[in-house]
Amino acid sequence: MNHLRLSHHPRRRIAVRCALLIAPLAVGLAACQGDGNPLAAPPHEAAAQVAFAAASGGKADPAKPLQVSVKHDGSRITDVTATDGAGRFVRGELSSDGLRWHSTSPLAAGSHYTVRVSTEDSDGHPGRKVVVFDTSSAQAGLHVTFGPNAGTYGVGQPITAALNRPVKDRAARASVESSLVVTSTPQAAPGSWYWVDDRTLHYRPQTYWPAHAKIVVRSTLSGVKVQSGVLGGADKPLTLHTGDRIEAITNAATDHMTFKDNGKVVKTLPVTTGKPGFDTRNGLKVVLAKESFVQMKSQSIGIAAGSSDSYDLPVYWATRVTWSGEYVHAAPWSEGSQGSANVSHGCTGMSTENAKWFFDHVRQGDIVNVINSKGPRMTPFDNGFGDWNLSWAQWQKGSALNAPAKGTQAGAKTAATAPARLRPETA
C-alpha cells in the first residue's frame, strides 16, 4: 500500500490492510490487486452522501478552509485526501464522529486541487467522491508551483510543475517548458519535461538522479508572453537534495528482496507478494510515504466481512509505494511463507524486524522495483510515481520541445492507465 496524507484529529485511521496489499478529493487505501478480483470493484459513488463548501463562481477562496461533511444517515467519512497540482497535500482534521472534515493548512491562490473522500455507510459499504476545483488567483498571469517540498529525497523522485491555468497550444507549451530550468550539481543529470496533462508536468533524467546531488528548479517565465493575453509570472524556485542511491528489488518468483545502497547489495530479505488474483504490480515505483502504523480493513475495499479474504489488522512499519494501497510492511502472520510463497493481497510483506529495518533505511523517492510478478504493469502517472516505467524515447515524446510521433497528440500518455483502485490512508 502507499501514501502521503492529511492530518486527522483525533488520529483515527481507516485504511485498508494489505496482507500484501492513493492525485487530486479522496481515495481508499487497500490491498493491491490484479484484474478480476474483489479489489477491482470500485466503491459506490457517494455524491448523495457527501457535501462540500460551495465555491462561488466556480473558484474557491484560498483564504477560507475547505470543508467536507456527510449526511446524518449513519454514514461517516473514513478518509480525505486533498492535493494540489504539484501533488502536495493539504492537512486537515476529521471530527471524532466522522461527519465533518476541514483543512488546517492554507490553500494556495491560483491553484488546482483534487479532493478524494472515502465514506462508509451504516452497513459498512465503502463509498467514494472525487471533486476538483480551482482557487481564485492572487494576480493575473501564468504561475507555476514546483514539487515536491524542499528536502532530501531518493534518486527516483521526479520533479513536478503545476500550472495555475491550462496550456493546450503546442507553441505555448514549448514556451512554458523552455522556461522551466532544472540544474543538478556537482554532477549534471540531463533530463526532460513530460506534459502529463494541460496543467501538470513531470521532469526526470534519462536515468536516476546522481546520489548526493543538489537539484535546483526555477522558472524564467516572468514577463514572457505564453499565449494571447497571458504573461508568465514570477514564482519561487525549489531546491532539493538526493541521498544515497537506494534500490529495493523484489523478485516475486523467488520471494526475496535485494536491497542495494549505491550499487552494493547490503541485505537480502525473505518476503511474500500477492497471491494469484491479487498479484503485486510489476515495475518501478518510488517510495511515496512512510507510516509506522496503519489499520487495514478489507471492508474498505469491498471485501465482505466473514469472507475468506477479509481482514482487520494493525499493520506496522508500512512504506507506501502506490496511491491505491500497495505497501512494503510488516506481516508477522505470513512469516512461514516469506521466502517461499506468495500469500498477500498485493503488498510486499516481511517480518516485523525486517520491515522496521526497511522502514528505517528508505526515504521518499527511493526506488522499489518488483520483477517476475504476474500482476499488471505499474502505470506512469495515475497511481504514484511510475514515471520510470516509460522508456527514454517514450518519455521524450511527452515534451512539447520534441516533435510528436506521427498520429499522436503532444503530451499524450504513452502507456495505458488504470483508475486508482484503492484509497489512501489519512493522518
**Any idea of the CATH topology of the largest domain?**
L,D-transpeptidase catalytic domain-like
In the CATH classification, which architecture of the largest domain applies?
A: Beta Barrel
- Rounded to the nearest angstrom, the distance between the terminal CA atoms is 15 Å
- Low confidence ranges: 1-41, 405-427
Descriptive terms for the model:
L,D-transpeptidase catalytic domain-like; Immunoglobulin-like; 6% helix; disordered N terminus; single chain; 5-stranded mixed β-sheet; disordered C terminus; 427 residues; mainly beta
Describe how the helices and strands are arranged.
Blueprint: E1 44-45, E2 50-52, E3 59-60, E4 67-70, E5 76-84, E6 92-94, E7 100-103, E8 112-120, E9 126-135, E10 144-147, E11 151-153, E12 159-163, H1 170-178, E13 180-185, E14 191-197, E15 200-205, E16 214-219, E17 225-227, E18 230-231, E19 238-242, E20 246-251, E21 256-261, E22 264-270, E23 283-286, E24 289-297, E25 312-320, E26 327-330, E27 348-350, H2 352-361, E28 367-371, H3 392-396
Parallel strand pairs: 1-9, 3-9, 11-19, 20-28, 26-27
Antiparallel strand pairs: 2-4, 4-7, 5-8, 6-7, 8-9, 10-12, 12-15, 13-16, 14-15, 16-19, 17-18, 20-21, 21-22, 23-28, 24-25, 25-26
